Amino acid sequence: MGYYNPIYVYPVERFIEDVVNAGADGLIVVDMPPEEDAELRPQAAAAGLNFIRLATPTTDAKRLPAVLANTSGFVYYVSIAGITGTKAPDLAEVKGHVGRIKAYTDLPIAVGFGVKTEAQVSAIASVAEGVVVGSALVASIGQSLDDKGKATRATKPQVLGLVERLAAALRHPAEAAAV
Description:
This protein is an alpha/beta fold. It is built from eight helices and five strands. It has a five-stranded parallel sheet.
């Protein structure tokens, strides 16, 4: 997951070769709209990489088909408008948007941005096939570092504990009606 400029400078051919050799399954290039993907998406597809696109709360019915065109692997639904980790998703809105996206595609949908708690993971897992908790992990790591930004004895157990709690929430998704 990243931005196109570093890929462009890499350049594209070498980037694709390196990510395939590293074992990547797909790419999420957040600043590359479908209308501008000719320099990367076909080459990624030819190399066997999924090209995962983002849908957002502002992706309307007119725009959604273009977003889903040539999307593979899964659709990443951004659950909030704004910067990841800054606010919590509105779970009722997530349910509605995920349902709308599912009407247009059979691809699995992963929901992320602002997802931090077991309750959020459980609720989202009841309507989506995946839940992304990157900001929660970054925050957990950050809380355990020393004053020089180095890991402490608390880092590993703190992060593993969070992962265990969030994974348990996946195994017990909330009733869809509760979302």
